[in-house]
Amino acid sequence: MKHLLNRLIVYFLFSMAVPASWAATEQATLMVFGDSLSAAYGIDEADGWVNLLASKLSANGRSYRVINGSVSGETTTGGLARLPAMLDSYTPDLVILELGGNDGLRGLPLEQIKQNLSKMIVLIQSTGAEVLLAGIQIPPNYGPRYTVPFFAQYAELAEEKDLALVPFLIDGIVQRPELMQNDGIHPKAEAQSMILENVWPLLVPMLKLPAEAPVSGNG
Predict the structure, then answer these.
(1) Does 3 participate in catalysis according to the annotation?
(2) Which candidate in 36, 38, 70, 93 is catalytic?
């Protein structure tokens, strides 16, 4: 009996001494890797859709560490260069890839954009992480010869790589000028929950959340 008691005491002391980093490894990591649309450009970071996503995951009982790896002004070339270090640093289990808008606004070659996105998808998948691809549209004044194939490339990549796709990240927002900042490109704070509404239904099956989970606000 005394021997058993001693073993229990040793076990208890050992469990108390487990480093916090060990416990942290049990928590899954979701990384949003995007540009200003995900970096809370022009608004308080706390109001951004990525922060709202973190709050919603917590409210739905999902223990996820949410990393916002988004940088305002980021292109697919910059993202491709930056991605390996981000993957090494955070080892995400799931990545929401939201890039390409700045390439499009600069009129960069469509083939280059698609190749960069494809390479990033391969890099992410090579680590064992899942990818949710977020598409974007650019203003119609760039002309249909550019805007149509630009938008189509996201669906093409999703089909080629067998990915879940958010067709248009800010759908339902850009069509309402009162929800956009003065630049006409970035949604206001009050529209961030609408971005989350566009993303959330695609995340539900990837995170194995109940299908009836709420899709708006902070949960």
Answers:
(1) no
(2) 36
> Which burial class, exposed, middle or buried, applies to 46 when counting CB atoms under 10 A from its CB (0-12, 13-18, 19+)?
exposed
DSSP 116-160: HHHHHHHHHHHTT-EEEEE-----GGG-HHHHHHHHHHHHHHHHH
Q: Between 1.20.1260.10, 3.40.50.1110, 3.40.50.300, 1.20.140.10, what CATH number should domain 28-207 receive?
A: 3.40.50.1110
pTM of structure: 0.84
Tokens of 47: 């109001």
Q: Where are the domains of the chain?
A: 28-207
Our answer to whether residue 47 is catalytic in this structure is: no
Return d(Cα 33, Cα 134) in angstroms, integer. Answer: 10
Catalytic residue among 21, 72, 186, 216: 186
Express each pLDDT in 19-36 by its tens digit. Answer: 333 334 468 999 999 999
C-alpha to C-alpha distance for 199 and 38, rounded to whole angstroms: 12
Which candidate in 88, 93, 183, 193 is catalytic? 183
Sequence-distant (6+) residues with CB within 8 A of 214 are 56
